Amino acid sequence: GTAALIWNEIIREKVTNFIMNESKEQRILNFVLQNAVRGDPCSVVDTIDKYCSQKEWAMNVGNEKGLILDKTVEEANPSVALELGTYCGYSAVRISRLLKAGARLLTVEFNPEFAAIAKQMIEFAGVQDKVKLLEGPSEEIIPQLKKKYEVDTLDFVFLDHWKDKYTPDTILLQECNLLRKGSVLLADNVIFPGAPDFLNYVRKSPRFQCTNYPSHLEYMQVEDAMEKAVFLG
């Protein structure tokens, strides 16, 4: 798995970027703009999956783990959801297409280039009325959610950013009183690349009830899993 990631993310990507004079993320967006149906979030998700499974690997949650994400969102039925790590906007589109009327998703992205791509992806999918993209570090944005973005509590949180941020950001969400009894956290890539500190924290905490969903790394046959942690108050 590590060797495959190094090949896809470092060697192959850098060579292709140099030859084509554009980023992989821009190529994904271009493929969607040319092949997906505008205003159809399902078409956008399917088109990204097609590109990333057939042409260039990318760190979206992907089609297999996407079904786990879908099921968790549908069960949580959130009014207010938070995503940490927008990347190209794949999971923001995937989550928002399942939100009930009046519900909203706040998605946080640190990388300005990724944020610019995601903004276009979200608008092309036609879900911009449900999704607000917040640009900056999660540790700065989380404490602003209540006052600046009028969030009382979060019903659902998807953690898919830097793995070493999972635990401190989960602690910060609690310290900022953003979780209520029944709030659902879903964390991606807990096996590969891995988030052992997070698993150790939520599984040992009496404040969380955890469920593990074994799966595979997006677009690969590498073992991975998602962890659901329900806040007990």
UniProtKB/TrEMBL annotation:
Substrate binds at residues 163, 189, 218. S-adenosyl-L-methionine binds at residues 61, 91, 109, 160. Binds 1 Mg(2+) ion per subunit. Gene3D superfamilies: Vaccinia Virus protein VP39 (3.40.50.150). GO terms for cellular component: axon; dendrite; membrane. Mg(2+) binds at residues 160, 188-189. Keywords: Catecholamine metabolism, Magnesium, Metal-binding, Methyltransferase, Neurotransmitter degradation, S-adenosyl-L-methionine, Transferase. PROSITE patterns: SAM_OMT_I (PS51682). It is an enzyme of class 2 (transferase). Its cofactor is Mg(2+). One of its GO terms (biological process) is dopamine metabolic process. One of its GO terms (molecular function) is catechol O-methyltransferase activity. InterPro entries: Catechol_O-MeTrfase_euk (IPR017128), SAM-dependent_MTases_sf (IPR029063), SAM_O-MeTrfase (IPR002935). Its EC number is 2.1.1.6. Belongs to the class I-like SAM-binding methyltransferase superfamily. Cation-dependent O-methyltransferase family. This is catechol O-methyltransferase. It comes from Oreocharis arfaki. The gene is Comt.
